[in-house]
Amino acid sequence: MSGPIHLAFDDNRLLSSLYGEHDRHLARIEQLLGVDIASRGNEVRIQGPHSAAEAARDALNALYAKLVKGLPIDLGEVEAAVRFSNPSNGGNGERELFDADALAIATRKRRVAPRTATQGAYLKALKHNELVFGIGPAGTGKTYLAVAVAVDHLITGKVDRIILSRPAVEAGERLGFLPGDLKEKVDPYLRPLYDALHDMLPPDLVAKRLTSGEIEVAPLAFMRGRTLANAFAILDEAQNTTPMQMKMFLTRLGEGSRMVVTGDLTQIDLPPGQKSGLAEALDTLTGVPGIGITHFTGADVVRHPLVGRIVEAYRRREEQAR
Fold first, then answer.
1. For residue 276, what is the enclosing H or E element?
2. H helices present in 35-181, as ranges
3. How do residues 129-164 score in pLDDT, each as one tens digit?
4. How far apart, in whole angstroms, are the C-alpha atoms of residue 208 and residue 62?
5. Has this prediction a pTM greater than 0.70?
6. Which of 260, 258, 292 is nearest to 159 (CA)?
7. pLDDT digits (tens, 9 = 90+) for 186-221
8. How far apart are CA 261 and CA 291, in angstroms?
């Protein structure tokens, strides 16, 4: 335990947003870093282990800098600031936080910024490569960030359309027992993609672009025989593709297009003995120029903190089983 760190902020008008309602932002930093934070007016005192207290200082400074720029912050932003500032998570202080701001994407409904260093690396890969693989557990933002980049490309005219696809593989359910026609049967599998779209664009604009074909959400089987030119194509849940399906999808890439493939190799729902097309693609394509591969871990989970602990517990169990 070292001496306390003292901070003072210039603009009192920003303090309520910085501290959060009933100081909940400060309380969250205390909980995540194991420090004590006391505020009095525009002054803050941080007491705790030296590295943790420094991380809390860096997080508060970065959050205050966001508010000075006119950017809103919430608990998610607070948790992201702590991740970037905490050396035990591989954080590198305020510099990484400002790098994250530079990578932010402004969609019609919200501003989307990376909340972990790996998410930042993923956004850089999406910027510089025509084909990107995002591999890792649930809740790490693989698909969400890919949809955000796709929407940005569409509204800025870099592509003419977005194509979102998933394999309609059952995870214990049976398609035949679901009511309705084919579209109604496969829509539940594609729901996460619709949800991400509605987070980025107003509902009327999503509906309009779906009707016009500028945004297409379709099962993987509908991709065969097509050439996807001037499009941003995303294949989600790719661990449930067969090698033949994966090769088919990857070879749809046309002129002026971008492609993102996301998946979690720990959640394969294929029949026993069937190799995952995603696993084979990673073995085959690693090192090929123009292809970016980003691996997420449980430390990158940005849903409820418990999700990260669940992912880590299952990882340990699988390691013990091996």
1. none
2. 50-68, 75-85, 94-102, 117-128, 142-155
3. 999 999 998 889 999 999 999 999 999 999 999 999
4. 38
5. yes
6. 258
7. 667 778 888 889 999 999 999 999 899 999 988 888
8. 11
